[in-house]
Write a structure and sequence with these properties.
Layout: H1 3-10, H2 30-44, E1 51-55, H3 61-68, E2 73-78, H4 81-94, E3 99-102, E4 115-120, H5 131-142, E5 143-152, H6 156-165, E6 169-183, E7 193-205
Parallel strand pairs: 1-2, 1-4, 2-3, 4-5
Antiparallel strand pairs: 5-7, 6-7
Helix pairs in contact: 1-2, 2-3
């Protein structure tokens, strides 16, 4: 599948109708989602025929992208039942098969490296300090091949240090810097739209 085609399909998906500020729910736009998964597949072969998990999947944009790029199976995890309802409808609309699981990522009791690849757009940790690192820590425990994740560029050194020192990463590489458009979703947002610099990371876990 071509990148433009993937971006077009993702652009038709429903997003949060009632975003929850405490969960830092922001939609992963089709531009970023398509490039993230396209890079994972075309540069590294980490999606097609692989078991892919989407942590904090929200309305399922990254899950859908993985399924469209022929992942062997896709599992989306999220704490919010409303988001998972939307994600399920999105999967049905695209006619792709995705399993969705309602759970708290930070309390996930999965044993060992049971998926190939984790893709995620975690909370940036602005409402709950350290939320981004909790997601990364959980992802690094279950992925055997790679973790792809978006983090604010301003946290780059901190992320790299933690991944290599604390989270069992063999490598931690910024693949590209992207502009993340944050639409005015919440009352405390002053401007109509803000764009933040975010890094697309690829982490490679050590084999357990």
């Amino acid at each position: 599948m071509k990148l433009k085609q993937l971006e077009g399909l993702l652009g038709d998906l429903e997003q949060f109708s009632n975003p929850k500020v405490e969960l830092e729910q922001y939609p992963t736009g089709p531009h970023i989602a398509s490039r993230m998964l396209f890079t994972a597949e075309n540069s590294y072969g980490d999606i097609s025929d692989k078991v892919v998990a989407d942590f904090g999947c929200g309305c399922g944009t990254l899950s859908a992208a993985a399924a469209l790029l022929d992942a062997a199976s896709v599992i989306g995890f999220d704490i919010d039942p409303e988001s998972l309802e939307t994600a399920t409808l999105n999967a049905e609309e695209l006619e792709v098969e995705i399993d969705f699981v309602q759970c708290d990522i930070t309390k996930l009791e999965l044993k060992g490296q049971i998926v190939d690849t984790v893709v995620m757009n975690p909370p940036f940790g602005t409402r709950k300090k350290g939320a981004d690192m909790e997601f990364l820590s959980a992802a690094m425990k279950v992925a055997s091949k790679a973790v792809y994740s978006l983090h604010k560029t301003s946290t780059r050194e901190h992320i790299k240090r933690a991944a290599l020192r604390d989270f069992n990463a063999k490598s931690a590489e910024v693949l590209c810097e992207l502009r993340y458009d944050l639409p005015k979703l919440y009352k405390f947002h002053k401007r109509k739209e803000v764009d933040i610099a975010v890094d697309l990371w690829r982490f490679e876990p050590r084999q357990s």
